[in-house]
Specification:
This protein is an alpha+beta fold. Helix content is 28%, strand content 25%. The protein contains seven helices and seven strands; from the N terminus they run αααββββαβββααα. A seven-stranded antiparallel β-sheet has the order 2-1-5-6-7-4-3.
């Protein structure tokens, strides 16, 4: 697939219907590329979150928010690398990638505003390379196929206030997720998480809901 080979018949039909084909072609010529530029890399490595889209075995897209400390996504030899942290055990995105490597990433800056999209092919890295990413269970490596900016005019401006306290520290440690204190999940936790849940004490689903509503989830 070439840098600008971004359209299929379905796109062309809609473009033609609304008289936008010439604009679509010119836009692709101007902004779509497959090699990360210095500006792309700087933008990506400043971010502390992005949205990841993968495709499940039934063909449905799965959209996931991925967050970490600023710079948790690295660029190595035109390859994006990001850590998979402790989650809820579902591994939806990771499972999808293991079956179908096609992914989309959306990097956002709500303060300027600006956004950058990457479409590429992903693979899982379960090697010791994850040790360079504190708290990582494994890594995801993505080879970009198409990279492009989007017009920011409809992006609302928001101000960042603080980093999530659950982002792993330099030694890989992080607080226990509040939902792991729910009795309904206790028997499925790792021994280390069970010990921490016992130390912190069980909470009811109502208490957990109140914590979420208060921004303490």
């Amino acid at each position: 697939m070439s840098d600008t080979d971004i359209y299929s018949g379905c796109h062309r039909e809609i473009q033609a219907r609304y008289g936008q084909r010439a604009l679509a072609d010119r836009t692709a010529e101007l902004i779509v590329h497959s090699e990360l530029t210095d500006q792309d890399i700087a933008f990506i490595e400043e971010r502390d979150f992005f949205f990841l889209t993968s495709v499940d075995p039934g063909g449905y897209p799965t959209v996931s928010y991925k967050g970490g400390a600023p710079g948790f996504v690295k660029v190595e030899n035109n390859e994006l690398v990001f850590p998979c942290y402790d989650g809820n055990g579902m591994f939806l995105s990771i499972g999808n990638i293991s079956a179908d490597p096609k992914v989309g990433l959306l990097f956002m800056d709500f303060e300027r505003p600006r956004r950058l999209r990457v479409q590429g092919l992903a693979r899982l890295d379960e090697s010791s390379a994850r040790d360079a990413f504190p708290g990582a269970l494994l890594l995801v490596r993505i080879t970009p196929q198409q990279i492009f900016v989007n017009c920011p005019r409809y992006v609302h401006k928001y101000t960042r206030t603080e980093t999530s306290r659950y982002v792993p520290k330099a030694d890989g440690s992080a607080p226990l997720a509040q939902w792991k204190r729910l009795p309904a999940v206790y028997d499925t936790l790792s021994p280390a998480d069970q010990a921490e849940a016992t130390r912190e004490g069980a909470i009811s689903i109502e208490d957990y809901g109140r914590k979420v509503d208060a921004g303490e989830g």
